[in-house]
């Protein structure tokens, strides 16, 4: 992988007892096997406290659909 970069937006988190949740949007891009990529996703992570550290119990990534310019049918 080359030229990897990312930007996180809209980060929120909450902790209730020994369970935590983080949600955010991420834009990431780079090159892998000489092919460029650029992705926008939303992410949800659920963490569980284990002693003095936090462990990821569940993680979900969903890509935002690519937007296409719509063709005008009239006018």
What is the topological layout?
Elements: E1 2-16, E2 19-32, E3 35-50, E4 53-63
Antiparallel strand pairs: 1-2, 2-3, 3-4
CATH-derived topology:
Nuclear Transport Factor 2, Chain: A
Number of strand segments: 4
State the major sheet.
4 strands, antiparallel
Helix and strand content put the structural class at mainly beta
Overall pLDDT metric:
90
Q: Tell me the series of helices and strands, N- to C-terminal.
A: EEEE
Number of domains: 1
Proportion of residues in helical segments: under 10%
Which percent range describes the beta-strand content? Answer: over 45%
How far from one another are the termini?
Answer: 46 Å
Which structural traits does this protein have?
4-stranded antiparallel β-sheet; Nuclear Transport Factor 2, Chain: A; elongated; 75 residues; mainly beta; 0% helix
Can you put this structure into words, describing what you see?
- There is one protein chain.
- The protein has no helices and four strands.
- The protein has 75 residues and is mainly β.
- The chain has one domain (2-63): Nuclear Transport Factor 2, Chain: A (Roll).
- The protein has a four-stranded antiparallel sheet, with no helix packed on it.
- It is elongated and about 45 Å long.
